[in-house]
Amino acid sequence: LPNYERDIYLRAKIEKGGICHFYYSLDGKKYKAIGMPFTARQGKWIGAKVGLFSTTPYGKERGWVDADWFHIDK
């Protein structure tokens, strides 16, 4: 979302069998899928790992992320 300067809501849903789905929303109500689902397995994504990172294409200004809080529920 280039130059988007409002809140972005992120969601991860983990199904039985370790199938992980990721979503984002611009209003906190309607979520759109990000990427393809994958299966968590040992050596790939097992355990409590939460984080954010920001990237930007080469030759552009630095990317950044400003996270005020996380909410994790089961």
UniProtKB/TrEMBL annotation:
Residues 6-72 form the Beta-xylosidase C-terminal Concanavalin A-like domain. Gene3D superfamilies: 2.60.120.200. GO terms for biological process: carbohydrate metabolic process. One of its GO terms (molecular function) is hydrolase activity, hydrolyzing O-glycosyl compounds. Pfam families: GH43_C2. InterPro entries: ConA-like_dom_sf, GH43_C2. This is Beta-xylosidase C-terminal Concanavalin A-like domain-containing protein.
